[in-house]
Design a protein that fits this description.
Length: about 350
């Protein structure tokens, strides 16, 4: 594959010119941004990382013990289980007269007071009222629901442009602002979220077009065209989009999503020679790009049937090469393409 594509993160989200962040600096719109002292008014996104450890349990009182077990599996077992969470908060705006989007001391205090001090070494089901499932408006403390609860607490204090919460290295959620910068988000209104899972498989392939000679293929693909092929340990990230269910706290049934990826991709691809063992690649050269595209084709319909939308597939072939395929209009941007708009505010 000719080039790598880096994975998006909350810091790569564009900031709309009318967002609360754009008020920083209060500079004249006619003054060239680059000419202002200390970068005042120039747009930037900053991130702050925080960690906390917490436990949770998935259990709905309206379901029987058997139904909870069937729905949530081991996550329903008492007294619960825990995770080491990693939170990345992205904030954006124009630089102030001191050359900062925000004073990091204020950012640290906001995250500590509103999130980590309240959640660290706690049981999530018992800490915040939105996770009290004895109430009709309570929901389970899933990764998605926890991300939304953190968003609602931080949004009044910092100019959020994105938030990522890792429950573990193979499961995380991304949240973005409402589509309209003037849309206020009620504390209990379900947000749209992007849930990602990571898995892996090992496979061999050969990059060669059958209509070309060996010499021609080697001129295009180099060593990758050698007759007996070569292998990779592929890392696969699958991102789905959907609205967070107000009761289960889920974008989709995580067990169903994991089963679809396992049954449609991992099992058919793992420990195979893709050119010979996967029918699609008998006639399509199995570059990382084509493998990612085929995975997206395989998953899009079944994921839609599960109640979510496939947003993105990212396939990492090696530490140096990766391919990303968007199954719908990208919202988790790879580049902050519109940040320049802030300079005119």
């Amino acid at each position: 594959m000719p080039a790598s594509v880096t994975a998006p993160d909350p810091a790569s989200v564009s900031v709309p010119a009318s967002s609360p962040a754009s008020g920083a600096g209060h500079v004249s719109p006619t003054e060239p941004a680059a000419a202002r002292p200390h970068g005042e008014g120039r747009p930037c996104v900053i991130t702050r990382r925080a960690t906390f450890s917490a436990s949770h349990r998935y259990w709905l009182p309206e379901l029987s013990a058997e139904e909870n077990q069937a729905r949530f599996g081991p996550c329903s077992l008492a007294p619960g289980h825990g995770h080491n969470y990693e939170l990345i908060v992205a904030m954006g705006g124009g630089l102030d007269a001191d050359g900062m989007v925000l004073n990091l001391s204020d950012v640290k205090h906001a995250i500590r007071s509103q999130v980590t001090a309240q959640l660290d070494f706690r049981c999530l089901n018992e800490v915040w009222p939105e996770f009290d499932v004895s109430r009709p408006d309570g929901c389970l403390p899933t990764t998605e629901a926890l991300g939304q609860a953190i968003w609602t607490r931080l949004a009044p204090l910092v100019p959020l442009v994105g938030l990522r919460l890792y429950e573990q290295p193979t499961l995380w959620v991304d949240l973005l602002p409402p589509s309209s910068p003037h849309t206020a988000l009620p504390s209990r209104a379900p947000m749209e979220a992007f849930l990602s899972i990571r898995t892996h498989f090992a496979a061999a392939h050969r990059l060669a077009r059958p209509e070309l000679s060996q010499a021609e293929n080697e001129a295009i693909y180099g060593k990758c065209a050698r007759p007996h092929g070569h292998g990779h340990n592929y890392l696969l990230d699958v991102t789905v989009r959907g609205r967070i269910d107000p009761r289960t706290g889920m974008v989709c049934d995580l067990a169903v999503l994991q089963r679809l990826v396992d049954e449609l991709v991992v099992e058919p691809f793992d420990h195979t020679f893709l050119n010979k063992d996967v029918e699609h690649f008998a006639t399509t050269v199995p570059t990382a790009e084509n493998i990612a595209l085929h995975i997206a084709d395989l998953l899009s319909g079944p994921i839609a049937a599960s109640g979510a939308s496939l947003h993105k597939v990212r396939l990492q072939e090696s530490p140096n090469n990766a391919a990303e395929v968007f199954a719908e209009v990208p919202q988790l941007e790879m580049r902050p393409a519109a940040l320049e708009a802030l300079a005119a505010v």
